[in-house]
Amino acid sequence: MPEQQLHLGDWLPYKEDRNAGKGGRSFYFFDFDDNILHLDTRLILFHRDDHSELEISSEDLSRHGAGIGKKGPFRDYYINNDDRTGSFRNFRDMPLNFRRLIRRTPQTLTEDLRTALLKPVWDWHGPSWNHFFYAVLNRRPVSIITARGHSPRTLRNALNELTRQEHLYRRPNILSLYPVTNPRLRRRIFQDPEYRKPVSELKSLALFRAVEDAFRKYGRNPYHRFGVSDDDPANIREITNTLIQVKKRYPENAFFVIDTSGEGVQKTEIFPDHVESSRKIGLSDALNYQLFDF
After folding, report:
1. Cα separation of 33 and 38, whole Å?
2. Which of 8, 20, 63, 102 has the most CB atoms at less than 10 Å from its CB?
3. Which pTM was predicted?
4. Strands annotated E in 180-260
């Protein structure tokens, strides 16, 4: 059973942004899958001989993805990148047609979320759930940067579903939504019409844009502070490298990485020439909100 987190809404008071008195805002950027939420959205692998399909979880992909088609349990399978029929089709929006409109069939993301919400909360709470809840409770500007390819509208609807079902006390204060493999965003925002850029690069570009979104909406202010949360060690390394470059561009602002990989939380502050990390504490530690209150 996953380690249970103390529900912050039961005891945490409302807190203003740390630099509110100086006009500063605290911005929270999140990865989605297995970070905020655990959803049972399945990826599809194809057998190299007969092209039969095999469903795997995102956890399977994280553990064995590098060995697909090469070694390990998925050495005889390959990934098909077709948006409609391929391996990640459940992570994309299904095309709307007359029948779907009449039946009001939800997108797979909404279906998977509603299914997850029927389970005990510790089954679907990701390691950054309390970080996300805290940000929403305190009206912090939030950006979602995810490898999913749904439309931003679909992603927004899923986030609002959490409010409708009263798992959040209010709707998130959305700054920006970057489902980086969305075909429209990939072509128009990330200049990747031939789908050649890896997801790690797309997420790095989205992180740069999310910081710029913050300055456009809330103004350039040296007291703005930014935190980026992710559960994947490889993503954490990429985020850290990206934020070092962002810090060099905006040295007066504070930037943090919230690492929720493994069974704990660790906050790292980014400086142009070094980083400073806190000790890692357990998700169930009632004081862990101090790590994501920046």
Report:
1. 6
2. 8
3. 0.89
4. 225-230, 254-259
